Amino acid sequence: GEDPPQKLDRKVEEMNEREKGSSGRSAGEHQHLLDRREMLKKAGVLGPAVLGLGAAAVPMIIPSSVLGKDAAVAPSNTVTLGVIGSGGKARGGMQNFKGVPGVKILAVADPIAQNREAGRALAGIGEDSAYIDFRQLVDRDDIDAVLVGTPDHWHVLASLAVVRSGKDVYCEKPLSNTVAEGRALADAVKRYGAVFQHGTQLKSLDGTRRACELVRNGYIGELEQITIGSPPGHATGLHGEQPVPDWLDYDLWLGPAPMKPYTPSRITALPGWYFISDYSKAGWIAGYAVHDVDIAQWGMGAEYTGPVEVEGTGVFPAEGLFDTVLQYELEFKYANGVKLVLTDTSKNRHGVKFEGTEGWVFTRGGIEVSDPALLQVELGPNDTHLYRSLN
C-alpha cells in the first residue's frame, strides 16, 4: 500500500487538476529565483525565519519580484496575497499584513459564509473574489503568496496545493497533524523552490529571543533541563446531530477528515475542533504547546533536529465530542543529553524554564532570570546572535 506521504500527494493530485508534474516555474525562472534569494540573504534582507521551515513570527514581506513574478510585477512592487481559511486567527494575520506597505490582499476562501464575508470585508475586495472552494483562489495567476489559516487537518493539503501552483506560503501552526504529513510538505517546499513560513510568532518577541541567546551562549552554564507548562485541553458533553446549515459547505470543511454528523461545536475553533482528534491529533498540545516546545528547541539549538526519545502519559475525556488529551506529562530526551519536561499548567507554570549548571532563565514573551546580572549581558561578536524578526 501507499505510505502517508504518497497518500497525501495522491489526495492533492485528485484535488488539483492543474498539477502538471512540475513546480510551475521553468528551470530558468527557478534558478533566477534562487539567485535573487541568495543575493538578498547575503545582503541581510531575508532572514532564516523566512528562508527556512523552522520559521517564526508575523510574516516578513518581500517584493513580488523576489517571489519569481518579474513579468507581472506592478510599478509599486506590490505583493499580492490570498487567504485560505479566513476565521479569527487568519483575520488577525490579515490585519498584520495590511499594516505592511506594498501588500494587497486579492482574495479569500472559506467554506463558512460568515468567515468568508468577514475576510472579504477586511480585505476590501468584491464578492467575486471571496470563494467557497480554495482551489479557485489557488488557480489565480495574479496572487504571489497565500496565508493558510484553516483548521489543522487542512494545513498540509492546502499548503501543498499552493506550493505546487508556484506560490509561496505563510501557514498557521501546527504545521501538520503527523510527522509523515509534515515531512511530505517540507519535501514539497524544497522540491518546488517555494518560500514557506510557519506561524510560531512568539520567537519574534524580544524577551523570547534574549532568553534563548543567553542559553545558547552558555550564560547559565551547561544546559541540563527545560521545563514547560502549557494550557490543558478541554472536555465537553455529547452533542446531538443537527442539520447542516445553508451557510456551510460541510463536505469541503471536513475535507480529508472522516465524515461525521454535523454539530456547531465541531466547526468552532475555541472550544471546538482544536479538541477533536479528527482535526487536531494532539489537541491543545499542537494548538498551544507547539509555541513553547518551539522556543525550547530554539534555546538549545535543536530546531533542526528534535528529540531522540519521547514518552509520556495523559488523561483523556471519558466521553463527549472532544476526545484529545486534557492533562499531560511528557519527557523528551535529546542527543546532547538535555531533558525536556512538558506538562499542563496544573503541574508547572505557563512558560519555558531553561535550567543550567550556573542559573536559570524563564520566558513567556518576557524574560526572568536567576541572577539580575544576566539581564545586563551584552553578547560578544563571537556569540550566537539569533535572528531578530522586525515585523
How would you describe the overall organization of this protein?
- With 391 residues, the chain is of the alpha/beta class.
- The chain has 2 domains: 4-199, Rossmann fold (3-Layer(aba) Sandwich), CATH 3.40.50; 206-391, Dihydrodipicolinate Reductase, domain 2 (2-Layer Sandwich), CATH 3.30.360.10.
- It has helices at residues 4-15, 27-42, 48-51, 88-98, 113-123, 134-138, 155-164, 179-192, 206-216, 250-254, 264-267, 284-300, and strands at 79-84, 103-109, 130-131, 145-148, 168-172, 196-199, 223-230, 309-315, 327-333, 339-344, 351-356, 359-363, 368-369.
- The strands form 2 sheets. It has a 7-stranded mixed β-sheet, with helices on one face. It has a 6-stranded parallel β-sheet with strand order 3-2-1-4-5-6, sandwiched between helices.
- α4 runs parallel beside α5.
- It is globular and about 60 Å long.
- It starts with a helix and ends in a 22-residue tail after the last strand.
- Residues 15-59 have low confidence and may be disordered.
Q: Under the CATH scheme, which class of the largest domain?
A: Alpha Beta
- Number of self-contained structural domains: 2
Strand order of the largest sheet: 8-9-10-7-11-12-13
- The backbone outline, from C-alpha atoms, is globular
| Cα gyration radius (Å) | 21 Å
Kindly report the name of the CATH homologous superfamily of the largest domain: NAD(P)-binding Rossmann-like Domain
Topology-level CATH name of the largest domain = Rossmann fold
Largest sheet: 7 strands, mixed
InterPro entries: Gfo/Idh/MocA-like_OxRdtase_N (IPR000683), Gfo/Idh/MocA_oxidrdct_glycsds (IPR050463), Gfo/Idh/MocA_OxRdtase_bact_C (IPR043906), NAD(P)-bd_dom_sf (IPR036291)
Region (Disordered): 1-31
Domain Gfo/Idh/MocA-like oxidoreductase bacterial type C-terminal: 241-364
GO molecular function, one term: nucleotide binding
